[in-house]
Amino acid sequence: MEKRTDHIVKSYDDELDQIDHIIAEMGVLAARQLEDAIQALVKEDTALAQKVVLGDAAIDALENEVDALAVRVLALRQPMALDLRRVVAAMKIGGSLERIGDYARNIANRSQVVTALPGEYGGIRVIERMGGIVGEMIHGVLEAYRDANVERAEAIRLRDEAVDQLNNSLFRELLTYMMETPSNITLSMHLLFIAKNLERIGDHVTNVAEHVHVMVTGESLESERPKSDHSSQIISEKP
Amino acid sequence: MHPIPVTTTATATSEISSEQGEDCVEAGSSVISARNIDVFYGEKPALTNVNVEIPRHQVTAMIGPSGCGKSTFLRCLNRMNDLIENCRVKGNIFLDGEDIYAPEVDVVTLRMRVGMVFQKPNPFPKSVYDNVAYGPRIHGIASSRADLDEIVFNSLDRAGLLDEVRDRMHESATGLSGGQQQRLCIARAIAIAPEVILMDEPCSALDPIASARVEDLIDELRQKYSIVVVTHSMQQAARISQKTAFFHLGELVEEGDTERIFTTPKDSRTQAYITGRIG
User: Fold this and answer.
1) For the whole prediction, is pTM greater than 0.80?
2) CA–CA dist A187, A181 (Å, integer)
């Protein structure tokens, strides 16, 4: 599907384009917030972390804007078929991007605590890798949305498995680390939550990819995405 | 056999009442089948090779830009096109398996089985009662005055108008509001127990509230009748119909479940029309 913009009513096209622009802007902001949050953690940069925390309001404002515009289009234009799917997809994708922004802010908050704690831990490299993959997924899914490209959306959706697997292995590792030295528990718990946030961001990107699929084809994805987040089943064994 | 000079509900009498038909046929089976229909006005083709099934006890919507042939097709279904000079219809239309264009068919009987409601409400300049009683009287449906009263009251009730006109039965129908007049025309159409009701843009001359009442009525009427509606309002078609057929330049481009047509149309012309890209 190309996102055709040649309605008889020109202002209808303008409104749909405007919705696309806001989603693109939200996506760019959310991806940057995430990158900054990870950098704040890795480089122990509390000023950058603070910037991320304050920056989240801009994404929230854009979500309100996209919702208001979408409701206006629904009320005034009564969109049909691909146009309707486009508006509904934008509302849902806006919601996912807003959540991604929240997780980035949460990571930034925790990064300030991690920075303040004594000691160092190599697991931060795994988190950096997870953040890198998830950041690429955000950019990729936004391109899939912009180009209405189902194949690209599907490829992004499948990348989430790698994020889940990194989360599992980090979970195991931190569990062992905490059992070995209980004084590491505070740091480890914060890192676990950060990893969980990244895993959740991956899920939201996956949802966005699924919305793109429905937007383009009009059909829901039948096959279940391979789920690899097994951290809920991991149990600790006494050393 | 002469076509009756119909100005309004083009209906007449039949031995088969729609109630009898209901028990033996399943809802959703075809009441009308159109096969290879071509229509010409003089030499000019208006419709080309239309094949479509009209399901029983459902609402079928015909949509398409002006001049696409949807009203022409609607008029083929009860041979209203016979009344238009130079109009030629080729192909077959079967009503309950009988070809309505066969030479032995009585058009008056046909139009009783396939009634029609028009865009502009067109009550006779008679009382409310006489408007509805007109069809049963000329076709000799009622055996007594009490019988006729029952038909009139029942029809007005089914058309959702009875409560509004109960005290005005003998006042002139032209004094009713537009929406009431249209529902009166629907009552007049159903007074002679048709199987199929054809509606040619039944709401386009009505205000939004009157339109909503007629839409609501159409939904109720499909329990008893099969309905074919020509409409310019895509939203209306999407709301009231179970099946939709899209016409463009004299061709039936696409037909199918209304939900599918309005969400994932297959043909790019359908997509363009319903999303407001061609007019």
Assistant:
1) no
2) 11
